[in-house]
């Protein structure tokens, strides 16, 4: 039975990434407040936010300094755009800061408001750049199966998940997909992880050669995959990929929308996995999600080409209203100041042994096929048969059942198919890590009892 608030929601809103039919029965979980790693629903029930919202509230909820920063900027200058030569001081400060901390040389920063628009911008810049330097045929962009890059027309095309393409008439032309470097699911019998990584790089090279290297402009990858099921490439994968990209003069775009700002135990994910990107998309934790901000980090060679275009054709015809929004910019500056001042990366590293001790224990759970992840992001894949890796029948919605039970236990996690993702705020402490896994283990134990009693393992 839905509450009044739930009924009003069901009758008025479309929710992203929701089964619209099932939602009419279940209704929403209406959250009202938050503090630290905890959020509270409209009945006052507490939950550990084990997903940091959508992989984003890195400093947790109701951070007083961020609240005060937003209030102060709101009252001083709540809005100014940055079109046509306008600017604002926090935007300048944030751009300088990002250039300083980026893991590769950055010439200019282009602000936006979401991870999707950042990746859309990346696609447009790759095309613009190649036109500018007289290579109009070099336009194709290669992404990966199970990669996640957003939902706008170009970024959803980069995303390598069927739900983002089916019946949306996507992907658009010039976007291709290569192998997903997830060994557990895509490694062949008898193949070592190293051989698998070599095969992934070989398959990328074969695709480039098939399409014609003169037509392939860029490759985009998340250092560690998130929304596609938390996929962690084998050690050495990016080195092998990098060799192929260098050989055919293909730009490397790092999608650091989840992994930027400490998630993998380094300031940027590229550093944790040995990526050498040319350009980078950031969002989410750039403001601890207190304001929608994204940033595309542009290298000098692309900026130089953009500058030439302006000399030739005039205006750079791209950008949106909220780019460089002063409140978001001020929050970005303050968030990065807190990351550095409080050594959040160091804190994450100190939490990792405890976090992974719990995860390692879960490997023995009868439902768990694989535990994977890096730093403070993990995926727990639930399978019908541990020995053969046989998945549950998709219609049994095992992953959704797991997250529902976790929610009953007072823990918010997210299922990506039958993989349960965990990505708590980076400020989580040791006691809260223990509590998170106590709740999750209780939920998985209850699910195991249900699976047995309902005989859900039957093929
Ligand atoms: C790696 C990655 N890229 C891009 C996006 C899209 O970001 P947004 O939802 O802000 O458009 C996401 C969102 O989860 C993401 O995880």
Write a brief structural summary.
The protein has 459 residues and is of the alpha/beta class. The protein has 16 helices and 15 strands. The chain has helices at residues 4-10, 20-26, 52-55, 64-76, 89-101, 115-132, 153-158, 183-186, 193-211, 237-247, 269-273, 300-313, 326-341, 344-362, 398-409, 430-453, and strands at 31-35, 38-41, 46-49, 108-112, 140-144, 175-178, 216-221, 251-255, 279-282, 294-298, 368-374, 377-382, 411-412, 414-416, 419-422.
Topology:
Layout: H1 4-10, H2 20-26, E1 31-35, E2 38-41, E3 46-49, H3 52-55, H4 64-76, H5 89-101, E4 108-112, H6 115-132, E5 140-144, H7 153-158, E6 175-178, H8 183-186, H9 193-211, E7 216-221, H10 237-247, E8 251-255, H11 269-273, E9 279-282, E10 294-298, H12 300-313, H13 326-341, H14 344-362, E11 368-374, E12 377-382, H15 398-409, E13 411-412, E14 414-416, E15 419-422, H16 430-453
Parallel strand pairs: 3-13, 5-6, 5-7, 7-8, 8-9
Antiparallel strand pairs: 1-2, 2-3, 4-10, 9-10, 11-12, 12-15, 14-15
Helix pairs in contact: 4-13, 5-13, 6-12, 9-10, 14-16, 15-16
Bound molecules: pyridoxal-5'-phosphate.
């Amino acid at each position: 039975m839905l509450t009044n608030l739930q009924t009003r929601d069901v009758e008025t809103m479309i929710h992203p990434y929701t089964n619209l039919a099932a939602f009419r029965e279940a209704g929403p979980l209406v959250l009202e407040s938050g503090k630290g790693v905890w959020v509270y629903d409209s009945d006052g029930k507490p939950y550990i936010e084990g997903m940091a919202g959508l992989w984003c509230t890195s400093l947790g909820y109701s951070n007083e300094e961020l609240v005060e920063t937003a209030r102060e900027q709101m009252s001083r200058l709540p809005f100014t755009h940055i079109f046509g030569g306008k600017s604002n001081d926090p935007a300048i400060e944030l751009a300088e800061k990002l250039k300083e901390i980026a893991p590769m040389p950055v010439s200019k920063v282009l602000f936006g408001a979401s991870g999707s628009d950042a990746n859309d911008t990346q696609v447009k810049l790759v095309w613009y750049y190649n036109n500018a330097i007289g290579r109009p045929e070099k336009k194709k962009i290669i992404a990966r199966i199970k990669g996640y890059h957003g939902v706008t027309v170009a970024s959803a095309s980069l995303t390598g998940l069927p739900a983002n393409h089916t019946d949306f008439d996507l992907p658009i032309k010039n976007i291709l997909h290569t192998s997903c470097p997830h060994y557990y699911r895509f490694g062949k019998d008898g193949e070592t992880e190293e051989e698998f990584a070599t095969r992934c790089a070989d398959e990328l090279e074969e695709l480039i050669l098939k399409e014609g290297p003169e037509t392939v402009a860029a490759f985009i990858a998340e250092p560690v995959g998130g929304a596609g099921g938390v996929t962690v490439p084998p050690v050495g994968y990016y080195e092998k990929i990098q060799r192929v990209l260098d050989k055919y003069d293909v730009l490397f775009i790092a999608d650091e929308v989840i992994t930027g700002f400490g998630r993998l135990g380094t300031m940027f994910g590229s550093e944790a996995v040995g990526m050498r990107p040319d350009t980078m998309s950031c969002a989410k934790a750039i403001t601890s999600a207190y304001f929608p901000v994204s940033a595309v980090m542009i290298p000098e060679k692309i900026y130089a080409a953009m500058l030439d275009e302006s000399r030739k054709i005039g205006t750079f015809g791209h950008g949106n209203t909220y780019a460089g929004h002063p409140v978001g910019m001020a929050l970005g500056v303050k968030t990065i100041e807190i990351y550095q001042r409080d050594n959040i990366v160091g804190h994450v590293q100190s939490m990792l042994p405890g976090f992974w001790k719990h995860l390692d224990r879960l490997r023995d759970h009868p439902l768990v096929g694989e535990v994977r992840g890096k730093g403070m992001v993990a995926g727990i894949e639930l399978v019908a048969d541990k020995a053969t890796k046989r998945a549950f029948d998709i219609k049994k919605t095992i992953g959704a059942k797991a997250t529902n039970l976790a929610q009953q236990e007072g823990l918010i996690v997210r299922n990506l198919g039958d993989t349960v993702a965990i990505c708590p705020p980076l400020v989580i402490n040791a006691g809260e890590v223990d509590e998170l896994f106590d709740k999750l283990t209780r939920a998985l134990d209850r699910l195991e009892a249900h699976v047995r009693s309902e005989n859900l393992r039957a093929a």
